[in-house]
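Quick illustration, no need to memorize.
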Amino acid sequence: MGKIPNDCFAAPEEMITTEEAIAQIKHSLCPVTEIETISLDTAVGRILAKDIKAPCSLPPFNNSAVDGYAFKLTGDHQPLQLIGRSAAGSPFGKPIEEGECVKIFTGAIIPDGADTVAMLEDCKLDGELVSPPPNLQINSNIRKAGEDINEGETVLKSGTRLRPMEIARLASLGYATVAVFQKLKVGILSTGDELTEPGKRLAIGQIYDSNRYLLKTLFKKLGAEVIDFGIIKDNPKSLQQTLSTAAKNCHMIISSGGISTGDEDHVKQSVQKLGKLDFWRIAIKPGRPLALGTIDDSVFLGLPGNPVAALVCTVNFGFAIANRLMRGDAGRPVPGVTLPAAFEMEKKAGRREWLRGRYITTQDGITGVKAYHSTGSSLISSLTWANGLIEIPEEITEIKEGMQVRFIPFGELFE
């Protein structure tokens, strides 16, 4: 990753929309450029670094789509002389003439001279004579060479996340290794004397740290290499040391909580001593002004401490930053689905809101989406209740039951 300008996250003067924020993220950052070549067995979830061209056609030869008999279609409907067989990996190896046929199995090479395959169960066999059905057409039951992929064709573009399906496509073309971008390294930390690790006994005034576990799993699912810097107490020196170490080892640093201006909120001052920090006012709910900055060549993202706000800010802005760094795309690629609302609400104009939602089926058998009964952003139980987010655009001020709303399933967000 190249040198990040100090002013890359200069705070806009006015409150901005979600789209404006994402556009500025895309404009401000450059992708990680380090490339490594890895085995196909370890490539799932990685980001392709170079376009892939097909070194051969698929299928590489004309082959049979069924078990049957291969022959040249002439239209005289006379019985065919059976002269041999062609199996997958063991072709017949000689051309056939009119009036001849070979028994052929699925995937086997079509012999030269043949242009049609009759299914085994549709033919009559009398000794060495085969009578195919009368209603066949030329090329019936034949898979043509290059039908799937032509030699030289670009089959995968740089920036593609490799799923099992893309891995299979690479394997089908003979690739044993693939060039991918280096994994994005994301450092995650929580701040606050009130936080303790799950599994330990709570002291008076303490709570368990859940945000760090939420963020770690979110970015692992995104394909990043996560470095956990733990809980940092409200001590400026310790916080600066941790941030400095993270900046030397990570492309991106994320903290939750401690970003305000209270006596024990030291994140702002610590980041500013090591780099630069700006606060963006984004017209969203939940979520407060987003803290964005740089420490050396690392991007810093300061999230709200409330779990729901941390989730919403992460999937909209944290993922936009990570996607830009990983593959050059800072967009919001999740299409979601449009469903009728099974709830009512009012909201302010000019602000985009996300509600926790889940699918329901009405008594009439219609699939709709229901909103959680409370909008409190500290209610982590609402996240386990929900199976997605309902997005309400800026211009909408009222939702009535039955209105169409955009629902983003968690399965799409975290694929």
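The first strand starts at residue 35 and ends at 39.
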